[in-house]
Amino acid sequence: MFDDESSPRRSAGSSTKPGSQSALRRRNELRVTEQLLRGGPATQAELSRLTGLSTATVSNIVKSMQQAGLVTLTATTSSGRRAHSVRYIGDSSIAAGIDFGRSHVRVVLANRSYQVVAERQIPLPLGHDATVGIAAAAKLLDELLVEGGISRSSLVGAGAGIPGPIDRRTGKVIQGAILPEWVGINLHERLKSALELPVFIENDANLGALAQITWGAYSAVPNLVFVKIGTGIGAGLIVNGSLYSGSIGVTGEIGHLTINESGLICRCGNRGCLETVASTATMIQLLSRDKSHPMDAEDIVRHAKAGDSTTLRVLEDAGTAVGRALATISNLMSPDVIVIGGPLATLGELLLSPIRRGLLRHAVPVVGENTTLATSSLGPRSEALGAVSLVFQSDPAKQTT
């Protein structure tokens, strides 16, 4: 932690010495800048807490940076009080965020001010292999650069995520991915070769978690769980303000927690996993049995909002099971907030209510009662936004080779 400017440790008349006031100020400015680059816009009070600097020091630094054209201030509210959100605008660097899904790829381009400058999603065929998906992403990236008049030289890197585990030691997609055709490929090397950029890869749920604390409303939340409920179910964990990746990068696989030991065989090989009970694929299968055409996630949302009793019952069972799994995580890490994402997040309380019941039923009471449950406000772009954050928070020199 850097010393506050008000510290008596000064060397009067020696501005070039390491312990001088000017050197200390430069280090503190760097501290604030690094936090804005890593965490996105923040109020001055949040910057003080996150950097360990006094509010007076942060105020002086922000004022100086504003005068130099490095930051902008926007009126906002924080804890019910008027405040100013500080946004870094110091350079023209652009990062690409890529979200590979089971049937889509989305590319987002954003600057260091955490402002999206270009974005598009295109469909991909079910069962596509990595060659098809990566080629589509590369083409889409080039198109967005041309359409936005953005120089390729301004790109500092690309972040990417897929719905499945990635071994951080090798950069390879491993068993358990929703894209089984991608298992075994070195996603890092393949993307790096196709894009000719520094590349940073993560599981999509981890990127969703990262997006919540950089693009979402939870920049000041130290411990957060993001849960993506889709064809698969995964969780991203934020612990003490940082993404938790474990020893090999495979964490948050709550979709494979056992819910029913006598249940169905899961794609992972185990029996009765959460995904066999609460994934959108399972819900669609249950709700499509008497339909002439299979339903999709949008149908689930529409029918639930219309009050369809069968759909609501399926959501009740699925949500309660998710809540039970989240109780296990909550008992282990006691998160401040659990954010639910994925295609059903727009259901709001229709989805949260059964999840909350499962959480409160199975969590230690004091933990369950003090855990906030919410749906993501970032919509389907959450994972791509998290991939942008991954680039800005990563050091290209530390890239996996």
UniProtKB/TrEMBL annotation:
<comment type="similarity">
    <text>Belongs to the ROK (NagC/XylR) family.</text>
</comment>
<feature type="domain" description="HTH marR-type">
    <location>
        <begin position="34"/>
        <end position="82"/>
    </location>
</feature>
<dbReference type="InterPro" id="IPR000835">
    <property type="entry name" value="HTH_MarR-typ"/>
</dbReference>
<dbReference type="InterPro" id="IPR011991">
    <property type="entry name" value="ArsR-like_HTH"/>
</dbReference>
<dbReference type="InterPro" id="IPR043129">
    <property type="entry name" value="ATPase_NBD"/>
</dbReference>
<dbReference type="Pfam" id="PF12802">
    <property type="entry name" value="MarR_2"/>
</dbReference>
<dbReference type="InterPro" id="IPR049874">
    <property type="entry name" value="ROK_cs"/>
</dbReference>
<dbReference type="InterPro" id="IPR000600">
    <property type="entry name" value="ROK"/>
</dbReference>
<dbReference type="InterPro" id="IPR036388">
    <property type="entry name" value="WH-like_DNA-bd_sf"/>
</dbReference>
<dbReference type="InterPro" id="IPR036390">
    <property type="entry name" value="WH_DNA-bd_sf"/>
</dbReference>
<dbReference type="GO" id="GO:0003700">
    <property type="term" value="F:DNA-binding transcription factor activity"/>
</dbReference>
<feature type="region of interest" description="Disordered">
    <location>
        <begin position="1"/>
        <end position="28"/>
    </location>
</feature>
<feature type="compositionally biased region" description="Polar residues">
    <location>
        <begin position="12"/>
        <end position="23"/>
    </location>
</feature>
<dbReference type="Pfam" id="PF00480">
    <property type="entry name" value="ROK"/>
</dbReference>
<protein>
    <submittedName>
        <fullName>ROK family transcriptional regulator</fullName>
    </submittedName>
</protein>
